[in-house]
């Protein structure tokens, strides 16, 4: 016998069921044969029928409780497989393998999975570029759908922008924007099409000239953030402020704080409550929207337990029913390290070696030696290093001779915090002379021992 399956791929809709056809030619009973459906590995089967009954020991875990061999046509050699509650992972190739006592044969077929998303939601979101901004959104599509704007006569209209993204469930979300000018009334439709299913969903809207005029005179707002960067220390908290001008309530608006990706918020407030489903994982449990001033258009984002990756730009985005605006705010990070530690370490080059060191700075600090009058002194040697926690350590060395000025200070400055820490030391001439004489005495003793 030969095992025969469909030449074309079988298409299934997410969440529904699929039937994979398979039969023997010529017709003969398969009731006493082994029928095995598997994917890449023969032993890890999708479904197994043997010895006149279904066998489940060894079945792939992801198919438990979801498969059924349809046995109504077994006596005619029909052995189709039904898969319930279709998932994205079910997509791909399947083998239909049939074996009797002396012979075996198989065929391969392909299952394609598709998702038919939600009906397009069209919203009018504000005045822009001499017209009004109209947005079409939909979610739950697979694979990536086609999106088209059409006029009353079915002609395609160019969109201003289009974004598609995959959510945690690997289904596609789409958002497309078109600008409707004030010069004429418009009948518009947004059509989203699944190319695998050859099905589409469409929504329509009528935009009249009077709405354009009304939106033009609707009160707009500007979002204002801090002119200067907000500075915080590692491990502390940071508060980023922004507000609307003119003053107006933001309680019914969307307030979104995000970084480079709009769809992955640092914090999102919408429908009068905080939303955490789309929040960036690295900010979970660390953010809070301070709402005390929302009635006056003032909000602030608190970020706790600041880390190095938090440094950079943040967008403060507001959206009402008819308008939206945003502002950028920069967060800079800094850490003030330990007080400089000055140590006298050895005799060198007819003087003594003085070392200044400190740890725990961010960003990389500046170190300067100064004399009693505040003049800068050049270091003989300096080095900086960064530890695993990202903080900098610094060490500089200076040689003090018998004739040099011996009132010294070591200053370490953080350029972001505009703070510095200073330590001072006094080296007496008598100490230098004694050290110099002692060094010469040791040197002569050593030379005498050699000769």
TrEMBL record:
Keywords annotated in UniProt: Immunoglobulin domain, Membrane, Signal, Transmembrane, Transmembrane helix
GO MF, one example: signaling receptor binding
GO cellular component: a single term: external side of plasma membrane
Domain Ig-like: 1-114, 235-330, 340-423
Subcellular location: Membrane
GO BP: regulation of cytokine production; T cell receptor signaling pathway
Signal peptide (from-to): none
Protein name (Swiss-Prot/TrEMBL): Ig-like domain-containing protein
Organism of derivation: Chrysemys picta bellii
Lineage: Eukaryota, Metazoa, Chordata, Craniata, Vertebrata
